[in-house]
Amino acid sequence: MTAKILDGKNLAEKIKNEIKEVVSGLRNEGIIPGLAVVIVGNDPASRTYVNSKRKDCAEVGIESFEYALDESTSEEELLELIAKLNKDPKVSGILVQLPLPKHINEDAVIFAIDPAKDADCFHPVNVGKLMIGKHEFLPCTPAGVMELIKESGIEVAGKECVVVGRSNIVGKPQSMLLLSQNGTVTICHSKTKNLEEVCKRADILVAAVGRPEFIKGSYIKPGAVVIDVGINRLENKKLVGDVEFSSASEVAGAITPVPGGVGPMTRAMLLVNTIKAAKLQNGRSV
Ligand code: GUN
Fold this sequence. Notes:
The chain is α/β, with parallel strands linked by helices. It has helices spanning about 10-30, 45-60, 75-85, 105-110, 125-130, 140-150, 170-180, 195-200, 245-250, 260-280, and strands spanning about 5, 35-40, 65-70, 95, 160-165, 185-190, 205, 225-230, 230-235, 240, 255. It is about 45% helix and about 15% strand. It is globular and about 50 Å long.
C-alpha cells in the first residue's frame, strides 16, 4: 500500500477536544448548548447513530434530549413536537434522524425545523445560504469531508474534483463546498457515461454512491486524494465503503478508511453545528 491514510477517527478526536474547550467557555457565560435528537421507529442503524450522537454530546459537554417515538407516530404529532422544540430555549439544535417511516413526509418535517436550529443543515433556507456562500451551518458529512481534504495537505483550488453521487445530503452540497474553494467540480451519477474515465480525471475523488466497493483502483488517478463516504454492510457483516480499499489504496496518494474515515467526522461536525446554533441564538458570531 502506498496511500497515506486519512484518519478521521483521530482528526475527529482532535476536533472534539477543541469543541470541549469552546463548550466549557460558553457554559462559563451561562450558555448551555443543547441538541434534540428525534427518532421515529425501530430502525437498528438509526438507533446506533442516535446512541452515538448522545455519547458524543456527553463527551463534549453538550446537553442532549432524545425523543424516541413509536413507528406509528403521525406526521402531525411529529410536527407538533418540532414546533415545541423550535420554541424551547434549552434546545439549540434539532436533528430528526432519517429515514422516517413511509407515512411521514420527510420534506414537511425538514421544512418545519427552525432554520436557526437546523443542526443537519437540511432546511432549504440553509441549503440556499450554502449555495450563495452566506451560510452559518454546513451539512455534517460534506463539512467533515472538507476537513479531511485539508488534512491530506492538498489545496482544492484549481484541482479536478469528482463527486460520485448527487444526493441532497452529500453529493450536491459536497460539490458546492469544493466549488467554493475553487475546485473544478464534476458531479457524476447513475446516468454518467464512462464513469471510470471521469473518475480517473480526479485529483480529489469523493465517493458517495451507496454501493459497496463500487469504485475500484482502476478508477483512480495515481496520487489522487480519495474520500469514501459510503458505509455498506456486506452479507458477511463486514463494513465496507463505496471504494474498494485494497485496490484503491495501491494507487491513491491519500485515502479514507471505512470505518474510521468520514463517519467520525460527520459526528464531530454535528457538534460544531450545535455550538454554532447556541452561539447565534445568544447573539454571538460564529
Ligand atoms: N440518516 C443518515 N444520515 C443522516 C444524517 O446525516 N442526518 C440525519 N438526520 N439522518 C441521517
